[in-house]
Amino acid sequence: MKHTLRQVFRSGKFIIGFSIFVAILLIVFLYPLIIPDPPLAIIAQGTFFPPGIYVSAYDTIDAPKYMLRLPNAAANRIASKLSNSDRLAMRDWLVMNGIPEEEIDIEDIALLLDLWINTYNPTIRVPGMTNAQRNYFVRLNNSLQGLLSTEDAIVAAKNPETGDLEERKAIAPPDYVNVSQVANVRFLPLGTDNFGRDVLTQLVAATRVSLQIGFIAGVIATLIGLSLGLSAGYIGGLVDDIIMFFTNLFTVIPGFVLLILISFSIGQERRGAVTVAVVIGFTSWVWTTRAVRAQVVSLRNRDHVNLSKLSGHSIVHIILADILPYIASYVVMALILQISSGILAEAGLSILGLGPRTTETPTLGLMMNWAMIYQAHVLGKWWAYFPVLVTIALITFSMNLMNTGLDQVFNPALRE
Predict the structure, then answer these.
(1) Whole-model pTM?
(2) Which residues of 318-340 are buried (b: 16+ CB within 10 A; e: fewer)?
(3) Helix (H, G, I), strand (E, B), or coil: what is residue 216?
(4) Integer Cα distance of 164 and 194 in angstroms
C-alpha cells in the first residue's frame, strides 16, 4: 500500500490535479468560517455591482479627514466623469457647430471644457442628430457642471425645528479618509449578481453544493456499474445476457436526454440537490458497467480465481476477495470520472432550468442559468458568469489530471 501511494504521489500530473482540487476544497470549507453570510442574502439594491471595495458614503462624512496633495488628483477626478468616448462625442458636437477640428484637443481637458461651456446650447438643433443623441449631450452637459471647481462641497442637514438646511460639513477636494476608520466597508471581489447578492459568497456555496451533487451521483453510478459489471463478468450466462441487454438499451438512449425527461417529470418543487444527484447517478452507470465487465472477464479464468473455486468459496467471496482487489485502481479512476461527469451534468441541467430548486442553495449550474437569463454576457458583466466557468473548468481539469496520473501509475502500457 505504501509503495502504491509513493508511486501515485510521484506522478506529476496527479500531484498538480490533486493540489488544485485540495485548494478548491480548502476555499470551500474555510471561506464560510471567515464570512458566514447566507449565500443567497440580498445585500445590494441594484443589479450587477462591479467588483471593488464599497465604502459607506454616509459614514465617510464623520470619518477623520486627511489632506493629501496628490499631483494627479484633479485629472483622475475629471477622467472618472469624462471618458474618452465622451471627449470624442464633445469634439464631434463642437465640429458640427462650426468649431475647427484643429482647435480642439481632447487631451487638454481645460481647453475642451472651456470650448464646451462657451459653445454648447441644448436648444440648438443640429441637423441629423437623433433625440437619443440630443438627450445624451444634455446628460453629459449636466454631469460636467462644476467639474473644474476647486471650492468645498457642502454637506447640509435639515433642521428638525425650523425645517431649514444647515451646513453640517465642508469637504475640500484634497480631503481623504482612511478606509480602516470608516465604520462600514465591504469588499466584493466579484461584485454582485442580478439580484444584488455577493457573487463570491454565492460561488463558494455553489461549488460546495455542486461537489456534493457530483460526489453522490458519482458514488451511486460507480456502485451500480461496479455491481452489475462484476455480476455480468464473473457469473456470465443468462445473468450476463440480461444485464448487457439493459446496458445496451440504456446505451442506445442518450443519457442526457433521459436525465432531462426524468428531471422534468419530477417537478420543480421536489427537485432538491440530493434528488438531482440521485437522478444523475441512476442515469450514468452504463459505461462503468461495460468497462468493469470487460476487466472481470479477463480475470475470471486466472489461476488464483480457479484455485478459489476449487476451495469451495462462494461467488460473493470470489468476487470480493479475488477479483475486486485487482480492479480497485480502475474503480477509483471510474469514480473520479463519474464525479466530474456528475458536476457537468448538473450544470447542464441547471442551465436548462431543470436543476435543483432555486430558492434553497445555489449551484454552479444555477449561477450560469441566472447569468444567462439576465443577459450578463450581453451586458458585459463578466463577474456574474466567468468565475463560474473558471471554477467548473478547474474542478474538471484537476479531476481529469488526477485520473490521468493514476492511469499512468496503474496501466502498464502507459507506465514510464
Answers:
(1) 0.82
(2) bbeebbbeebebbbbbbbbbbbb
(3) helix
(4) 39
